[in-house]
Structures are given as C-alpha cells and as structure tokens.
Design goal:
Blueprint: E1 5-15, E2 23-33, H1 34-37, E3 53-56, E4 69-79, E5 89-98, H2 109-119, E6 126-137, E7 142-143, H3 170-182, E8 187-192, E9 198-206, H4 208-228, E10 232-234, E11 249-254, H5 256-260, H6 264-276, H7 278-282, E12 307-309, E13 316-318, H8 320-325, E14 330-332, H9 341-356
Parallel strand pairs: 1-5, 12-13
Antiparallel strand pairs: 1-2, 3-4, 4-5, 6-7, 6-9, 6-10, 6-11, 8-9, 11-14, 13-14
The chain binds adenosine-5'-diphosphate and manganese (II) ion (3 copies).
Length: about 350
C-alpha cells in the first residue's frame, strides 16, 4: 500500500491570562495524511489544515480548576525557522484563546483588535514597532555580561556600539533577525541600545493585525533562542533603577491620508486628539511604565503629554520628514517594552478614528 504521509510538527503559541501576558506554547506532532486533507506533497501546509487544540486554562490564569478547558484557535501560521532538531516540516501556529462555546476568552485581546481593524480597514494604517529588550543572565538575575558586583561603565558607548568592550551577544541578535526574516516577518533593523546587553529590533511596516502577530512571534523566537543559549530576555520597562535607560516599544503609525495628503495642520489635529486621550493610552501601554516614563532618559513624564519635532523627550515625536512636509508618520514613544501590541494598537486606532470620523 502506498503511504502518503508527511511528518509535521506544529508549535502552538498563545498568550496566557497574566496582567502582562506571557507566551505559552506546546507542540503537536502529526502524521499528515495528505489524501484526507487534500494536500499534495511539496505544497506548503496551510492554516486551514491546522486542527484546533485545547489546554488547561487553570495553569495559565485563564480558568478555574473545575472547568479548565480553553480552546486554541489557530489564526496565523509561520515556518518554524528556529527549529533545530525535527527532521519533518516544522511550523509555528499563533492561536487565539476561545471559551468552549466558541466565544473569545476575556484574555483574548487579539479578537478585539480584529474587530476595530476590520472597521477601519479603509484608513490603510501602517505600523512599525521598535522592540527594546535586555538580555539577562537567568542564573544570577542580572543583565548579561554585567559584573558580579556593582555596575559596568556608565552609559555612553553602548548605543549602536561596536567592539567587545561595549557589545554583548551580537551573534544571537543577528541570528534572530535572520530567522524572523526567513519566516516572513518584516524585521526592518536591529541596534544595540544605551545599556550594556540592551538591544532593539523593529517590526514593520505592516497593517495592524500583521504587525502585532509578527511581534509576538518575533518575541517567541527570541525567547527560545535565548533559552537555548542559557540567557533570557527581559521586557521590563525599567529593568535597572537609577541612571540607566528603561526599555520601550515605540509605535510608529500612519494612515494613507497622513502619508499622501496631509499637511502640518492635520498632523497637529491628530496630536491634539492624542493629547486629549493621554490617560486612556497610558492604560494600554504596559504595566510598570511609570518607572520608565520619568521625564529623564529620553522620555516624557508619565503624567504629562508633549510633542515635538525630532524631540526624543516628547510623548509623540514628529520625525524630521513629517515635520518638513506635513506628511508621513508619527512616533508614539510612550509604550513600554512589555506592552501587548493588540491593546496598544487598538487604542491608537480608536483615537485616530476620532479624528477622521469614519
Ligand atoms: P528611531 O530609533 O529613530 O525612533 P527606527 O529606525 O528604530 O527609528 O524605527 C522607525 C520605525 O518607523 C520603523 O519600525 C519603521 O517601520 C517605522 N516607519 C517608517 N515609516 C513608517 C510609516 N510611513 N508608517 C508607520 N511606520 C513607519
Ligand atoms: Mn529605534
Ligand atoms: Mn530605541
Ligand atoms: Mn524610536
């Protein structure tokens, strides 16, 4: 009898129910019978072919012990470019968490973004997220490469630094970038940041759903690569108190109108709207952000709003080109590194909709 099976590994990813969500994942191995699924060998495995799955929500703050099953609904599939042992086809499957009756779980922030993204599709919004983070030594719970006691040299040469005295783990950063790009994630750049072992990568530009999904998968890949190398990744907004920068996740955004038609009055109108919703934005921009937004270290104070041309101490920075031409994009510098992009971008779209009155 002719066998027509493909051996496939599916790594299911979802967000747990913690206040700052964590990625959870588990693997399913299947012998994929192509005749049953109408899949011929050599073709890419499709999202439609991925079965729904479940997990124990009582272990992830998503259910009580008595009624603990939650459903994993596959919503996006990626080639698993960080696979290093499995010899068959390997995929990462991003999932939404659903209740047993098929409704979105209360922790499912993606489903809420899905709704508003559909409604505002005609705005043709683009986003670019700058994810900052700090590599940690998990055994000693301190930043990777920092001395056992005390601190490394003060900030100065680390930002975009070059050389073994000021840079750590560049191989890992570059390997992560390559794995993201190979998986189809638009990772646009990386740079060393202002503290030793702090880095940044940028995801985008892409539409709202894609940029958020891709950021979560990029975060997942970095966590696993770091894990394999014996290091961990901190997205804490202020990992080290004192005269050290925090970690942010600047969100750059534009609508088609901003890119192609707008003038400086229109840009001012958008910024005014953002100012009037400052507190609502801060509420969606990550837990512990008050330790980071102090008014120092290239931030505006959390209780104030300001904007400015090329101003890195502003809440919203108007990039040079946008200031010069009245068109382009804006940079919201307030989101913390640990923000949930589904929530942050949801809030940004709501505010912009208030300007354009869809
Ligand atoms: P900086 O560090 O100077 O703030 P980066 O180069 O790190 O800037 O990040 C700039 C970000 O802006 C990138 O993520 C890029 O994708 C995004 N971006 C560029 N053009 C647009 C645009 N028209 N709309 C939305 N985002 C944009
Ligand atoms: Mn940047
Ligand atoms: Mn940065
Ligand atoms: Mn920035």
């Amino acid at each position: 009898m002719e066998k027509n099976m493909n051996s496939i590994k599916l790594e299911y990813l979802w967000l747990d129910g913690y206040e700052t969500p964590n990625i959870r994942s588990k693997a399913k191995y299947i012998d994929f019978d192509s005749s049953t699924f109408g899949f011929s060998s050599g073709e890419e495995f499709q999202l439609e072919n991925v079965p729904e799955w479940g997990f124990d929500g009582s272990s992830t703050e998503q259910a009580d012990g008595g009624d603990s099953d939650c459903i994993l609904k596959p919503v996006s599939i990626y080639r698993n470019t960080i696979e290093n042992t499995f010899s068959g086809d390997s995929y990462i499957v991003l999932c939404e968490v659903m209740n047993r009756d098929g409704t979105p779980h209360s922790s499912n922030t993606r489903s809420k973004l899905r709704d508003i993204a559909e409604e505002s599709d005609e705005l043709k919004m683009w986003f670019g997220i700058e994810q900052e983070y700090l590599f940690m030594d998990p055994k000693h719970d301190r930043p990777y490469g920092w001395p056992k006691f005390g601190f490394p040299s003060p900030q100065g040469r680390y930002y975009c630094g070059v050389g073994g005295d000021v840079v750590r783990l560049r191989n890992l950063v570059e390997f992560h970038a390559e794995c993201c790009i190979a998986a189809g994630i638009p990772l646009g750049g990386t740079n060393a940041e202002v503290m030793l072992s702090q880095w940044e990568y940028q995801i985008g530009t892409a539409g709202p759903m894609q940029v958020c999904d891709d950021l979560w998968v990029a975060r997942y890949m970095l966590e696993v690569l770091a894990e394999r190398g014996g290091v961990s990744v901190s997205l804490s907004p202020k990992p080290i108190m004192g005269d050290w920068n925090g970690s942010g996740a600047h969100i750059n955004f534009s609508t088609q109108y901003m890119r192609e038609v707008s003038d400086s009055d229109y840009i001012s109108e958008i910024i005014k709207k953002f100012e009037s919703k400052h507190d609502e934005h801060i509420a969606e921009y990550g837990i512990g952000n008050e330790d980071r937004l102090t008014g120092k270290h290239e931030t505006q104070h959390i209780s104030e709003f300001s904007s400015g041309d090329s101003d890195r101490g502003a809440s919203i920075r108007i990039p040079i080109v946008t200031a010069r031409e009245g068109k382009g994009y804006l940079e919201d510098r307030r989101p913390a590194a640990n923000m949930d992009p589904y929530r942050a971008i949801n809030r940004i779209i709501k505010t912009i909709k208030g300007v354009v009155e869809l």
